[in-house]
Amino acid sequence: MGQEPEGLDQGKGRGLVFILSAPSGAGKTTLIRRVLEELPGLRFSVSYTTRPPRANEREGVDYHFVTPEVFRKMIEGDQFLEWAEVLGHYYGTARIQEEALREEGIDLILDIDPQGARQAKAKLRNAVLIFVLPPSLEVLRERLVGRGLDSHETIQFRLAHAKEDLKEAHWYDHLLVNDRIEDAVKRLKSIMVEERRKKEDPYGESHGGRLLERGGEPV
Ligand code: ADP
Ligand code: 5GP
Q1: Is residue 211 over pLDDT 90?
Q2: Full-prediction pTM beyond 0.85?
Q3: Fewer Cβ in 10 A, N or C end of the chain?
Q4: Alpha-carbon distance 35 to 22, whole Å?
Q5: What b/e sequence results for 160-176 when a residue is b if at least 16 CB atoms lie within 10 Å of its CB, and e otherwise?
Q6: How far is the C-alpha of 139 from the C-alpha of 178, rounded, in Å?
Q7: What DSSP string runs through 186-216?
Q8: Ligand nearest to the backbone CA of 19
Q9: Ligand 1, closest atom to CA 149?
């Protein structure tokens, strides 16, 4: 039996930034809530948005709810790692100090759309991109209806937008089909633990590139 790299079994983060995207209703919020409960060393990145809060949402927990004016000032002050307009509202992630996260033993989880994921991927060294897929568009529609948050028109709008989002899935590092919730949670956790493990392996993908860049030969 190989020994667990130190810290892995204690669930320490490695300064990784897990980026999850999915069409609305695919189950991203549900999956994120579950891994936050079950995987230590993980923190949710609370985004800024100009969208009004939904009934069950709390300031500073689900989002920082701000006015368009405040959001614009934050853009001008270069305070965002990424931002985008999604379904008529603005959303953005504040800048991330990857070094500080690693020192704290924390990984971050971001729930952002593909436009934002592309910007974050270009800027971060430790990004891991995961796209969550519904089993089918019909199941997606059922979940949106079942969630009971949106009108018929909004659901039609979200479904049309979902088809656009799905075209972006191919450039993500991992695809995760949210079929049975327990299976999907298990697979998401194993992707995350595996990515943490790669950080411990000097010949692993995540280190190999950089070692080769420095010396030309793996060290
Ligand atoms: P998102 O954050 O991607 O918009 P949610 O997490 O709000 O999606 O999920 C949408 C709806 O589907 C919710 O009512 C949720 O309880 C339900 N749901 C999520 N995952 C599953 C699943 N694997 N099976 C059945 N229902 C699910
Ligand atoms: P909702 O309004 O349903 O919470 O989110 C709508 C969409 O905005 C989802 O696709 C979600 O991933 C995305 N989103 C949430 N926060 C951010 C963010 O900070 N940046 C970007 N680019 N998208 C975000």
Answers
A1: no
A2: yes
A3: N
A4: 16
A5: eebeebbebbeebebeb
A6: 10
A7: HHHHHHHHHHHHHHH-TTSHHHHHHHHHHHS
A8: 2
A9: 14
Nearest alpha-carbon partner for 128 in 173, 191, 83, 98: 173
Q: pLDDT for 128-162, tens place per residue? A: 999 999 999 999 999 999 988 889 999 999 999 99
Pocket lined around ligand 1, Cβ cut-off 6 Å? 22, 24-30, 143, 146-147, 178, 180-181, 184
Rounded average pLDDT over 201-207: 55
Mutate to test the pocket of ligand 1, among 86, 110, 145, 147 (most ligand atoms within 8 A of CB): 147
Output DSSP code: residue 171: G
- Residue nearest atom 19 of ligand 2, based on CA coordinates: 92
171 Cα to the center of ligand 2, angstroms: 18
> Is 51 within 8 Å of 65 (Cβ atoms)?
yes
Q: Name the more confident of 4 and 202.
A: 202
Closest approach atom of ligand 1 to CA 32: 6
| Minimum CA distance residue for ligand 2 atom 17 | 112
